[in-house]
Amino acid sequence: MTESLNQVLAQVDRGMEESLGRLFALLRIPSISAQPKHAGDCRAAAEWLRKELADLGFEASVRETPGHPMVVAHDDKPSSGPHVLFYGHYDVQPTDPASLWHTDPFAPTLTRSVDGRQVIVARGASDDKGQLMTFIEACRAWKRVHKALPIKISVLIEGEEESGGVNLMPFLKANAQELKADVALICDTGMPNRTTPAITTGLRGLVGDEIELQCASHDLHSGMYGNAARNPIELLCTILGNVRDATGRVKLPSFYDGVQEPAETVRAQWRAIFPNDDLTLGPVGLSQAAGEQGYSAVEQVWARPSYEINGISGGYEGEGFKTVLPAKAMAKVSFRLVPGQNPEKIRDAFRAYVKSHLPPDAKVTFTPHGASSGFAVPQDGPYLKTALKALSDEWNTEAVSIGCGGSIPVVAEVKEALGLDSLLIGFAQDDDRIHSPNEQYGVESFHKGVRSWVRVLAGLSALA
Amino acid sequence: MTESLNQVLAQVDRGMEESLGRLFALLRIPSISAQPKHAGDCRAAAEWLRKELADLGFEASVRETPGHPMVVAHDDKPSSGPHVLFYGHYDVQPTDPASLWHTDPFAPTLTRSVDGRQVIVARGASDDKGQLMTFIEACRAWKRVHKALPIKISVLIEGEEESGGVNLMPFLKANAQELKADVALICDTGMPNRTTPAITTGLRGLVGDEIELQCASHDLHSGMYGNAARNPIELLCTILGNVRDATGRVKLPSFYDGVQEPAETVRAQWRAIFPNDDLTLGPVGLSQAAGEQGYSAVEQVWARPSYEINGISGGYEGEGFKTVLPAKAMAKVSFRLVPGQNPEKIRDAFRAYVKSHLPPDAKVTFTPHGASSGFAVPQDGPYLKTALKALSDEWNTEAVSIGCGGSIPVVAEVKEALGLDSLLIGFAQDDDRIHSPNEQYGVESFHKGVRSWVRVLAGLSALA
């Protein structure tokens, strides 16, 4: 096995120039899914991928949806190991503001970043074309050396991840039989620093709510009514400004029910990577973790539920001053949830808290904005252990399980539609500027990313 | 004296039809000071008033300022009593939204309001053309009957009260010698109900401040940072939502230093007029006084300092939801002040309170918005007593001293520039809709207003 693997890794190294060439070809296609004028480019990217996969021996097809098409490919000839479903997306974010790009976003360029890393600059370099190509090039190296993949592989590449992705779930459900596998592999995440490989095993969910308070029937003059008429902005501030206690803990009853502390071994790994909060907060101009006392910044983001006010509005917001005592005030609030928390119960607890603090003259209107649960990969499954081992071997550093403070909808969708757990493996860096001008992807991320997948596939093929 | 007075009052009654005709003529001039296209109309209103005053025997002139002109008139032939300076303003508010007016705002119309009162509907009917004409028509009746005023009278009518009034103070200072008198009479206030005449003896001042909090260096994704990065909206809410204690009292140190309780006799008068808060709050859809416990709604507005949040803004305020963790949040805050409070000390106390609640990662920027002291007329002066008696005689109801929750800048300005105390006497009603569509002034307000001034002038003439 080792010899077989080493041959494939050597092929990756030999073929890197050509691999980069193919990535650049894909990056040149401006497949911006949110902009209708790029619909043809989205289809071109799908077609390009279909051809690459077909050339590798996959049964590959471009499949229609009500939006941009999907690429589906299968190679079920191998007989050993589990059957994996790889997921990626070929669409990219819009590029505005154009003036902030140093080079054409769709003319990929090799350059060196300030820290000396060699990087590929282009829209989609990291999110997600560079990442998805690490997997395809790993498959290519296996095929080149051994004329076969080590395990059964299906590939699903969508074109609407950056623009709502409403067609993915129906497509998964409609094609559940065809897309069934043993585990999903998703390459859309990152590493906690330059040297430590990682698998994302926890994602936070989200429940959002909009709250509007009304007191008087119309805006009043603060001279004629100030003091006597209830001020809805002040009331909103008092309610929303006291959701956490002085230690940063959310005071809603039962808020932490079901929340699991991260395992001490995992916390120790995180502490080793982030010995202080400055590594996390310094780049955004902050120094102190603002959430619950007793948790580091990384723990607060990866493993603890949050409370945020995402927007607030009321009264006079323009230049100068108006002595208005407004009738209404509004805020948008959200809670990031960890596994074990029930979004609807959290919403109910929040609304009950607000209502319990309303004086008789105040009316409240709530508008829900989304509800999704947190997600966790069990730490003791064979796929996770195998993949961590493969990554550790490639990077010569112990791979870690990390969290992600945000949501990746496809994880919940493949679970619901196909019953699959996901392994989230990716090689992006925090400073890759995804969704921003001058998006980049390290050449090392790409090269060692391809090699990592070669090793993961080898590892999985050894499982029963 | 009584016979002399009764002759003048009878002349008022006889001449009411013509008095209304003159008021309508003034109301037809669209003297909107805030709109440059109406500059000529403002000048026409000033010229109209100059002519009326000159026809009455005043030495009257239209006087230039950097903005709209002033009207100044003097009649110093009488030898008895104090010399009064009457102040009013000929300019009016804009009329938008035009669609909400039932009649042309500058085509004054007599109609009946829902409660059966006969009212004059026009922009400026109450604020301030109707009110200032009560005084001029009172002078006219004295002149008609006795060929002379009972006391020396100077008149100052400005044209920028509704648009900042920045030229009044320089004008007062530049013409202080010419405008000197013993007391100022100002007709720009109202009555607490339909039947009780009043003199406004307390005005609240105002200190406004804008507060901007910044935490992170730029807007963040709430998934990547939510919990760990300080949320400036939440911080702003916590700070501004806890300025009052649970009893509605402002917690800033020394906030209530120097604040006088209203005299028990005055409170008793107020209680008689407003036996419950519903009279004050019911019309705006509220039922409970929201300020300090232990004070009625009217006491909270007329005699107690307030704390208001007049505007707040931060994060995403549009349709739908964004998972932004913003870098900044802003609020506009004001305190209405009563006599005894120092605006700058209150501002300092507020800023110190804010700063004392800032975590190390938060930066604050303050922008001042105005600072004026509260104002009180001494309750035992001879002019006040005389004027209250005159009003009581006219309305056959004991006249009361009332407060006003807002500011009337001219009161402080005539005090500072000319050394004059003011008597604020007016006949407007709370439902006159000043500054709003379908502004109105009761025919009774106008008629009994003229008669009231006839009596006030008679009363003042009897003083040494």
UniProtKB/TrEMBL annotation, chains A, B:
Keyword Acetylation: no
Endpoints of the signal sequence: none
GO biological process: proteolysis
Keywords from the UniProt entry: Hydrolase, Metal-binding, Protease
Keyword Metal-binding found: yes
Gene Ontology molecular functions: metal ion binding; peptidase activity
PANTHER family noted in UniProt: BETA-ALA-HIS DIPEPTIDASE, SUCCINYL-DIAMINOPIMELATE DESUCCINYLASE
The protein's name in its UniProt record: Uncharacterized protein
